[in-house]
Design brief:
alpha/beta, 9 helices, single chain, about 325 residues
């Protein structure tokens, strides 16, 4: 049973879903912007709600709502990428995108998290699901990883065309931002080239397809490489899919960071296991170290990150033979 506050939250989200699902178009407009702003503001405050415990009807509404948010986000990014692309120097005008400051905060947060788990600046990073406005790659490449090459993967050729137009006139980023039009499930051996792979929140908008992508990355990424994923926590899980530690088969779960401010996405970081655990002799060992129990999560505060973030880290007991 949910408390009254959570019940009111669910009712408000369902009411907004009904209005959004009846819109003729999800392209930016006064009405679309107003409804999605209401939805975000409804879901933003910290909430103890567990979306996995919702009834079947609300679960279905949540799944549909995530897809509608994905479509609207794609239209919003295409709209602003087109506007930015009309400037002589698009990168000088990124601030016109209404959520640009959120990307600056998220980029700094993700850089700080990544820095805790790597010893050298990565030469090559892949961003899967970069879209028409690849702000994560741009922010990281411009502000934090000044020598790294970013390989941006998107299934949509038009999205990549918009994105490339933003950096093509910049002498630095045009050399360090590469765009690939591919379904990531069709990309195999070249994934070994990347020390870090980012997976966008809306690549795999349901649990099955998200896990399919994660399993593919686990198969082809280089041993020891870092996987950064976007997730969601509490009521924010009405907006984006949730990635649990137990979804990361083939990876060592390192930590998950839950921002409490206007940055909506949680950040999950994991490391590809150095060696595959496949032989029958290793099965017992594998069951001890694979992060397959979502309950093995300890919450604590990390002084390196803004106090407004909740941080969880999986603790695995040492096994002695």
């Amino acid at each position: 049973m949910f408390c009254q506050e959570e019940q009111l939250l669910v009712e408000k989200v369902c009411e907004l879903y009904e209005q959004i699902s009846n819109l003729e178009s999800l392209k930016p407009s006064k009405n679309v912007d107003m409804l999605f702003t209401q939805l975000v503001l409804t879901c933003m405050p910290p909430s103890p709600i567990d979306v996995s415990k919702l009834n079947k009807n609300v679960q279905e509404i949540r799944s549909k709502l995530i897809r509608l948010c994905g479509v609207a986000e794609g239209h919003l990014e295409s709209h602003y990428s087109t506007i930015l692309g009309s400037y002589d120097n698009p990168l000088d005008h990124l601030h016109i995108f209404p959520y640009y400051n959120n990307y600056l905060k998220l980029g700094l947060l993700e850089f700080n998290i990544l820095s805790q788990h790597i010893t050298n600046v990565p030469n090559k990073i892949a961003f899967v699901g970069s879209g028409p406005l690849p702000l994560t790659s741009i922010v990281l490449a411009s502000n934090h990883l000044l020598s790294t090459t970013f390989h941006n993967y998107d299934i949509d050729h038009l999205a990549n065309s918009y994105a490339q137009n933003l950096v093509i006139r910049d002498p630095d980023l045009s050399n360090r931002m590469v765009f690939h039009t591919n379904d990531i499930l069709d990309v195999s051996n070249e994934l070994e080239e990347y020390e870090v792979v980012y997976l966008a929140a809306l690549v795999g908008m349901d649990k099955e397809s998200k896990n399919c992508v994660i399993d593919h990355l686990a198969k082809y990424m280089a041993p020891g490489a870092i996987l950064m994923l976007r997730s969601a926590h509490g009521a924010r899980a009405f907006l984006y899919p949730v990635v649990e530690p137990c979804d990361l088969k083939g990876f060592e779960f390192l930590s998950v960071f839950h921002p409490m401010d206007e940055v909506i996405n949680s950040v999950v970081i994991a490391r590809k296991y150095p060696m595959p655990i496949s032989s029958s002799i290793d099965q017992d060992i594998g069951s001890m170290i694979l992060p397959n129990k979502c309950s093995e999560v300890e919450v604590f505060n990390n002084p390196l990150i803004n106090h407004g973030n909740m941080i969880e880290e999986l603790t695995v007991e040492e096994q002695h033979s």
